[in-house]
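Hi there. Long-time user, first ticket. I'm pasting a complex I've been working with (about 346 residues overall). I'd like to know whether the download I got is complete or cut off, because the file seemed smaller than I expected. Thanks.
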Amino acid sequence: MTREEARELIDRRRNELGERLIILGHHYQKDEVVEFCDVVGDSLELARKASQIEAAEIIVFCGVYFMAETASILAQDKAVYIPDPTAGCPLADMADIRRVMQAWEELSRIGKSFVPVTYVNSSAEIKAFCGRNSGTVCTSGNSQLIFEWALSHGETVFFMPDKNLGRNTAKMMGIPGEQIVQWDPDQARGGLTDDDIVRARVILWKGWCPVHWPEFAISDICSMRKQFPGIKIIVHPESDPETVEASDSAGSTAQILKYFRGLKPGDKVAVGTEFSMVKRAAKEYKSIIDIMALKGIYCEDMGKISLENLAATLTNLEGKEHRVVVPDSIVREAKKALDTMLRLSE
Ligand code: SF4
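Hi, the file is complete. Here it is re-exported in full:
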């Protein structure tokens, strides 16, 4: 199928399906895909949208698999599709349910109360685990609010799977470094002693997003500042705490876009996040501010969504190939965890 044929097919199917169809897309999607999305947003915005959609019966999610799974959990009466079911998330894959449950069992032997919180970038099973154990979900846009809630419901947050987002959030809240520890699933008892666990207010699963870490580093910020004195730097909080500290600001994709709106005409800003979004923003704001990438790094999985597989999905809604189905046994508890997050961040 040529690109032109794919475009025509997508247009034709959108017209035929009308209000029955909604296409959601993450900010990290390519321009050619974004062009066909009815709503473009970050994980929190898209999760909220999925929970509120009334008219549509069909959701096509242009993003990675955990996002489509989240939409399916929140919109049980809709049929949810993803153009490429192999578009996964290496960060989400780092928290495997079996290892998380093993860690939870070991933690539970210490006489403390833990509240499990998972980043939305995780499998439906991990979300269900959090729901089952009176925990919740967070995004990079609401992590502080969720950690505060968790710490008002227990002594320690057990956070999965992004160590960097977890540490950045805990630091922002003023939690001292010695009370933030890391659970390494490759080591016996996470590599922690009883004393470490007793002392901890936050336990971080050792996972990371390979797009943001170790890719964006202080050395990139230094060379940017040297090349463009006065430039502002904003990074995503999946970058490590040292990089976040050396930047002027950090935030989710929605918060990064908001940051641009607060800049003065003529300002220069370098952005440490996925390149598709940075390129699009640079084009959109080119007559007002100068937006550049701290480094041009793409998320390969986000990039798997194309015009061709979007067209193929829309022309084969009867088939199972692109359909996202979460087992009922997981939906109920995962939804409980997601609903808590949505209620807290209203
Ligand atoms: S950018 Fe990172 S966290 Fe987001 S989907 Fe890609 S690998 Fe996962």
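A couple of notes from our side: The mean pLDDT is 97. The pocket of iron/sulfur cluster is lined by residues 64, 89-91, 121, 209-211, 274, 299, 301-302 (CB under 6 Å).
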